[in-house]
Specification:
The structure holds two protein chains of two kinds. By secondary structure, chain A is α/β, with parallel strands linked by helices. Chain A has eleven helices and seven strands. Classes of the chains: A alpha/beta, B alpha+beta.
């Protein structure tokens, strides 16, 4: 039976002192983390390792004895991901524990090379596993962060605005990949019902690339809106997009398109039987008034 | 045709298609293509990258700055290890699709670039090479 677990448990305070002393500047990153925090993290981790070692199990860290160590590493990884550490910096924090432990192992086995080698091998395996747990947790917290941002983007990016009675506008910004198009389409159709709109303007000024997939999504949205009694106008067709659409061979003959949102709005007003006129009198030419055509 | 520098972009997920588009746009801007040419290149890249992803089960795009005796150009090579295309002529025909698309991607990209070459072997995969000259 190896003396290693007992040794770690007995000497963990010395190992920790040694560890903090040897921690290189690369691991310390005084710009990102304070000494007090580093001190408390190392204490927490060392205590958790000592309590795990007390179980005598050093090869399989999935058991309940190492639960505290796993949680501590997870917490450290999450806080470091937020603080802006890189994956390797975070893993190195754990890996830098090797030398202090090896030193302690050497002190414990002054005259028995076989036992020394055995303990060194066991402790290097242990720390590698701890470092892997750290890296996994680090990556998981990063991925969670990215997933949340993606969800936020999805919510942000599809506002349907009411321009006037019976006229909706949907300014699309960014990439129209399939997941987002679904959201765009649903929110437009919802708004058509809620506002009783007869015309919906889809503005694609903010869409950098219109390829066949984007065009297909647009056409499907337009068809669906038409089934619900609303006509769609596409605005914001820039010259380069127009040329590209022609070369691609996409047939937009059945769709009303305009270069500018203002043109589309003017057409929408006309379609819904409304006009914009100047007010006569003192403020003539300064203000415009909208009224329903008789 | 001489090559100056090149870069490889993997195409494994739909966000890689976005990445491929952004890379092509970045290169086209660096090489001072006109706005229309940039848009054409990016659109062609978008179509071909999506083809490689959806029909070819993923692959990669090699983006390369090339020059012949007179002009500079941007060359894009899309390679996948999918089922291949059994009838290339039919695939190039407008309106032909095996998925749910419009069937304009391949033929459309051909019209958006200057040189277009497609090599496909059923069961082995497909390689599409396009060049747009300045």
């Amino acid at each position: 039976m190896s003396k290693l677990p007992e040794m770690i448990n007995k000497h963990h305070e010395e190992i920790r002192a040694d560890w903090l002393k040897q921690m290189s500047t690369a691991v310390r990153r005084a710009d990102l983390i304070s000494n007090e925090e580093l001190e408390s993290q190392s204490r927490e981790l060392m205590d958790a390792i000592a309590s795990g070692a007390r179980s005598g199990e050093l090869t399989n860290l999935d058991g309940p004895a190492w639960g505290q160590a796993r949680d501590t590493l997870g917490a450290i990884s999450t806080s470091r991901a937020k603080q802006g550490f890189s994956t390797s910096e975070t893993a190195t924090f754990v890996l830098s524990l090797k030398q202090p432990i090896f030193n302690a192992v050497r002190r414990e086995n002054p005259s028995d090379p076989a036992a020394l080698f055995d303990d060194i091998w066991k402790s290097t395996q242990l720390i590698d596993k701890l470092a892997l747990i750290t890296a996994d947790a680090f990556q998981a917290s990063r991925e969670k962060f990215i997933a949340r941002q993606q969800e936020e983007l999805m919510e942000l990016s599809t506002p349907v605005v009411k321009l006037w009675d019976g006229i909706l506008a949907l300014p699309i910004i960014g990439t129209l990949d399939s997941a987002r198009t679904q959201v765009v389409m649903e929110s437009l159709l919802q708004a058509v019902v809620q506002t009783n709109s007869r015309v919906a303007i889809i503005d694609i000024t903010g869409v950098p690339t219109v390829d066949t997939l984007v065009a297909q999504h647009l056409l499907k949205t337009i068809t669906a809106a038409r089934l619900m009694g609303a006509d769609c106008i596409i605005s914001g067709v820039r010259p380069q997009i127009a040329q590209t659409i022609v070369h691609l061979g996409i047939d937009l003959a059945g769709v009303i398109t305009k270069a500018k949102l203002s043109d589309a709005f003017a057409l929408a007003l006309q379609r819904t039987g409304q006009v914009v006129t100047k007010v006569n009198g003192d403020n003539a030419g300064k203000r415009t008034l909208l009224r329903r055509e008789e | 045709m001489k090559s100056a520098k090149q870069e490889t972009v993997p195409i494994a997920t739909s966000s890689d298609v976005v990445m491929a588009r952004q890379k092509v746009r970045q290169w086209a801007i660096e090489m001072k293509f006109t706005l229309v040419d940039q848009t054409k290149l990016v659109t062609a890249a978008s179509e071909l990258a999506r083809n490689a992803l959806e029909h070819g089960k993923g692959g990669h795009m090699v983006i390369e700055q090339v020059e012949n005796s007179v002009k500079n150009g941007l060359k894009l090579v899309f390679e996948d290890r999918g089922p291949g295309i059994s009838d290339v002529d039919a695939a190039l025909r407008d309106g032909f699709t095996t998925g749910g698309g419009m069937g304009l991607g391949l033929g459309g990209s051909k019209r958006l670039v200057n040189d277009f070459q497609i090599e496909s072997e059923p069961g082995k995969g497909t390689r599409v090479t396009v060049v747009r000259w300045k």
